[in-house]
Every structure is written in structure tokens, then in C-alpha cells.
Automatic annotation (TrEMBL):
UniProt feature, compositional bias: Polar residues: 100-116
One Pfam family recorded for the sequence: RdRP_helical
Keyword match Transferase: yes
Coiled coil ranges: none
Disordered: region residues: 82-116
Protein name: RNA-dependent RNA polymerase
EC number(s) stated in the UniProt entry for this protein: 2.7.7.48
GO cellular component, one term: nuclear RNA-directed RNA polymerase complex
Keywords: Nucleotidyltransferase, RNA-binding, RNA-directed RNA polymerase, RNA-mediated gene silencing, Transferase
Organism expressing this protein natively: Morus notabilis
Domain RDRP helical: 119-182
Length: 529
């Protein structure tokens, strides 16, 4: 089953939440005009219109002296007659509907700031990390209330170290806590720049960062660090808020996800999310464990004009197809789970996948003594689940003993980079001197190729021809859309972790993988599933 719209409403009968002000006025109209309670479709229309527009429509109805035959029909008619939004100095060329106004920084759902102003124009002349640092250090203040265009331009040519110092002294010390200060002496070291936005239950924004970190996600590698904004929504405390206010916050959050966030003169829109689960919740109990990633879809900033950008002219749907054809998954619930594969912290293997022979091979299933398939929860157990093969020459390009990024400290990462560089140099030399090298035995990876997304583990098979990869059906998480095979995709083999078994103790599962590699018989009952 193809999923054409992952954001579609799967439960039309579920009551759609509305802001308290809209809900109270709607209930009053129904009571005074003897109208039936609003159905889900009417509530959706009002929620989609936004609080201001919904209130305008309902107030018009409340002031109307004539008899109302159909509240639903009257609301629909008035929504179609809505006035055009005030024009901006630079019209948007983004895929966002023209009648939607993006939320801006800093601000609230009810008070969106336009992109006008000499200060904003001056801000757009700085490189983005400098723009973001200013927005961080002014806290929840409006830019035009704390500085001038001339002051912003006077900081333009400072080095990042000097720029941070000056901006902190002028703004940071006054408006934010010390913990929000970003002091680095290696701004140009090539580390990943992480840009974060925290959204409060009331809808105000706080930009934090940029943070410099070693790991990089596939999403950041393709788009660039400054084109990705990580957004976290605060969780309201149950005892503080009523159901009506909760509906208001939900409507506000939905508005942000629909219309995007303005960071200076750049607009970022929702792209993908990942649930960090209990571990993420432990780090920050006051915010949701879900991390949302917004991407830049449009910019009026001077620094971005006449600069090539891979997403220029693309809709969000087209941008997602650049990474994988996730619209082909079997259910809406799986859409974001599969698409979030681009959020793993990985090391890119520097190979051209078009030059690699990629074969899909069948899985092997667990059998009992009589040769019958073994089932669990109605599904057959797969002996080779998630495990394929890679040729030795490709495996030699991988770093040895690369643990998952979250367990690596800076020193280990440096070692990993040195190893990776060493292996690549050896590969460039051909076969000379490779006799003493041993590739990692196990390679955990993500692969994106022509719309297909693959996840699993590679075992090194020295019998394979050079530049060969064999993947199993159980490893393919997203199938390509045959109608889109001529479209551009961002293909890459991403390494999550590696393991050299001769140096480390191995688990029972890893022993199973080794036995698969050397074709040793293992009875299914001896394995821990």
C-alpha cells in the first residue's frame, strides 16, 4: 500500500482540539442559535484557519441578525471570503500556502512578526552562525528593540571568537543565562554546528546554539549544518493546564509545524522527527523526548542570494524523496520511523555507489528438527535477519572498532578519523602492503541508494568480487518508487559502528553472525532471540 500523504487525518471521528477562545465562542453560538454541536470536519476547518481567522469568522456569525440555517455552511462560506494577508517586503517563494503566515522569532502564536526591518536586513548580511548567535543572546527580545542595523553591520568582519565575545558583552550578559553562552576556540575546526530552537507551551521561541559537536547526521551532510534546525517542544504540566488550554497549545504547535519558523529572514519547515524515548526524557524531563528537525525552504537574507541550494524550488515532499522514497512504505505509522534513518550519527564511506555491485539475496528462516519454519507472534523467525555481506576491499575502507557515536569521546573520534584516513591512503595504493591489514568483521550501517533505504549489519565475505554488496530483503526498510528512478537522490553508505572480533569479546548474537559468515550450522534453539 502506498502512502500518498503521511500527514493525512486517519481518524476523522476524533474530536479536533481548538483554542479555548474559539471553543467558547463556538459553544455560545451553538447555544444561542440552536445549532447542533460542531462536527469534526467543522472543527478541523476552524483549527486549520488559525485562531485569529477562526475568531474573525465566528464573531461575524455572532453579530449576524439573520437566522442561521447551517452553521457548518456559514463558516465554510466565510472562510472562503477571508481577506488576503498583508504583503511582505519580499514575497515568499516557498511551498508554504500564500495565506499562511509563518511564526517568527521570538514571538507567540497570536503575534507573528514579519520579516521587515532594517535590523533584519542587516542580520541577513552576516554568515548564519553569527546571525544565530545574536538571536540566542538576545533571548526572548525582539531584534529591533535591542540593537540597530549599524551595530549589527559593525560586527560583520570579526572572527568568530571576537564576534562571540562582543555579542555576549552587548547582549548576552543582559538577556540570557551564563549556561546559554557558546564559547569555542575551534569554530573553524570542521565540527558539526547544531542549531536548536525550544518552543514553550505558550508558543514563544528560544534559539540556543550553535553547539559544536563531532557527530554528523546524513541529513546535515546533504543539506549543510545551517540548513537544519532541531526543534523541541516543551511538555505542559498536567496539573497546570485545563483541557481547553491544552487544546490551545496543540493548535499552536500544529500551526508551527504547518507554517514553519522564521530564523531571521530564513524560513524553516518541519521535515522529520525522532522519538528519543526514556533516555532522552531523563536528560530533560521538562521537554518532549521527541526531536523535530526543520529544514530551510526559503530565505530572503542577503547572504543566501545567488547561492546554490539543493532544495531550491522543491516542496517538502520532493525534498524527502531526495533521501528516500518513504511514501512507498506500508503504513503511515511507519513513514517517520523509516524516514528517521537519516538522523543516525554516522561516518560516510567515501565510495561511489554507482560503481558498486549491489545484489539483493534471499533470507534464510529458522527451522525446527523436522525442517518446519519456527514462528513467533505469527511471524516466521529469520535466521539471517538484517545481515548481509560486503566485499573485503570495501570493508577495508571502514574504520576498525568504531563504537556507536554516543559512546565515543573526542579522543576516540580523532583516532577513528586517523584510522579512516590511513585506510583510504592504503586503498589508493592498490594491493601493495594490504596483506597485513584486516577489515572489521562486523559493520553496522545505513545505506541510501536510488530511493531505497537499507539498515542492518554487514559481514565481510572474502569470497565476493571486489566492490560487491549483498543485502537481504529483511534489511530493506524502504523500497524505491519505480516511477521516480530517474529523479535525483542523495546516495550514500553510512557507517554507524564496526567491530573487530579478534580484539574484543563478542556477544551470542555476534557469534551467530560470524557463523553465518562461515556457514557453520547452528541449531535455532541454542540462540537467544
Amino acid at each position: 500500500m502506498e502512502v500518498s500523504n503521511p500527514n493525512c487525518d486517519l481518524a476523522p471521528c476524533i474530536e479536533v482540539p481548538l483554542p479555548r477562545s474559539v471553543l467558547e465562542l463556538l459553544e455560545r453560538i451553538c447555544a444561542e442559535r440552536s445549532q447542533p454541536p460542531p462536527d469534526a470536519e467543522l472543527r478541523r476547518k476552524l483549527a486549520s484557519a488559525g485562531e485569529d481567522e477562526a475568531l474573525r469568522v465566528l464573531r461575524t456569525i455572532a453579530d449576524c441578525k439573520t437566522k442561521i440555517k447551517s452553521l457548518h455552511g456559514f463558516v465554510t462560506y466565510l472562510l472562503r471570503q477571508q481577506p488576503p494577508p498583508p504583503s511582505l517586503s519580499s514575497p515568499s517563494r516557498s511551498p508554504v500556502p500564500e495565506n499562511s503566515r509563518p511564526s517568527s522569532s521570538p514571538g507567540t502564536f497570536a503575534n507573528s512578526q514579519g520579516a521587515n526591518g532594517a535590523q533584519m536586513e542587516a542580520l541577513g548580511e552576516l554568515e548564519f552562525r553569527k546571525q544565530f548567535l545574536i538571536l540566542n543572546y538576545i533571548g526572548r527580545n525582539e531584534l529591533q528593540s535591542v540593537t540597530t542595523a549599524e551595530e549589527i553591520r559593525s560586527l560583520k568582519n570579526l572572527s568568530m571568537v571576537q564576534f562571540e565575545k562582543q555579542v555576549w558583552q552587548r547582549f548576552g550578559e543582559k538577556y540570557v543565562d551564563q549556561e546559554d553562552r557558546r564559547i569555542y576556540h575551534d569554530w573553524d575546526s570542521g565540527k558539526t554546528h547544531i542549531y536548536r530552537c525550544h518552543v514553550s507551551p505558550e508558543g514563544s521561541f528560544r534559539f540556543k546554539g550553535p553547539y559544536l559537536e563531532k557527530p554528523k547526521k546524513h541529513l546535515q551532510k546533504v543539506l549543510g549544518d545551517d540548513n537544519v534546525l532541531m526543534v523541541k517542544f516543551a511538555e505542559e504540566e498536567a496539573e497546570r493546564f485545563s483541557i481547553g488550554s491544552r487544546d490551545h497549545y496543540y493548535a499552536g504547535y500544529s500551526k508551527i509545524c504547518r507554517e514553519g519558523i522564521l530564523v531571521g529572514l530564513r524560513r524553516y519547515c518541519f521535515f522529520v522527527f525522532k522519538d528519543g524515548g526514556k533516555e532522552e526524557k531523563k536528560k530533560d524531563p521538562t521537554s518532549s523526548p521527541v526531536k523535530c528537525f526543520f529544514i530551510r525552504i526559503h530565505s530572503d537574507a542577503c547572504i543566501d542570494q545567488n547561492v546554490s541550494y539543493i532544495l531550491s524550488g522543491r516542496t517538502i515532499s520532493e525534498a524527502r524523496k531526495l533521501f528516500m522514497h518513504a511514501h512507498t512504505v506500508s503504513s503511515v505509522s511507519n513513514y517517520m520511523i523509516r524516514f528517521s534513518l537519516i538522523l543516525s550519527n554516522t561516518l560516510s564511506l567515501k565510495i561511489d555507489l554507482s560503481s558498486v555491485n549491489i545484489d539483493i539475496i534471499e533470507d534464510e528462516y529458522c527451522q525446527d528438527e523436522s525442517g518446519n519454519p519456527i514462528y513467533r507472534d505469527g511471524k516466521p523467525l529469520i535466521y539471517t535477519d538484517g545481515t548481509g555481506f560486503i566485499s573485503e576491499d570495501l570493508a577495508l575502507l571502514c574504520p576498525k572498532n568504531l563504537e556507536k557515536w554516543k559512546r565515543i569521546n573526542d579522543n576516540n573520534i580523532e583516532i577513528m578519523h586517523n584510522q579512516d584516513g590511513h585506510v583510504e591512503n592504503v586503498a589508493e595504493m592498490g594491493h601493495h602492503g594490504t596483506e597485513t591489514l584486516e577489515p572489521p568483521m562486523l559493520i553496522q550501517f545505513r545505506m541510501f541508494n536510488k530511493g531505497r533505504a537499507v539498515k542492518g549489519t554487514f559481514l565481510v565475505n572474502k569470497k565476493l568480487e571486489p566492490k560487491t554488496i549483498k543485502i537481504r530483503h529483511s534489511m530493506v526498510k524502504v523500497e524505491p518508487d519505480r516511477k521516480l528512478l530517474i529523479n535525483q537522490t542523495s546516495d550514500s553508505l553510512e557507517i554507524v559502528g564496526t567491530r573487530c572480533l579478534q580484539y574484543q569479546p563478542i556477544s551470542l548474537h555476534e557469534l551467530q553472525l560470524v557463523c553465518i559468515a562461515v556457514s557453520l550450522p547452528i541449531h535455532p534453539k541454542s540462540l537467544s532471540y
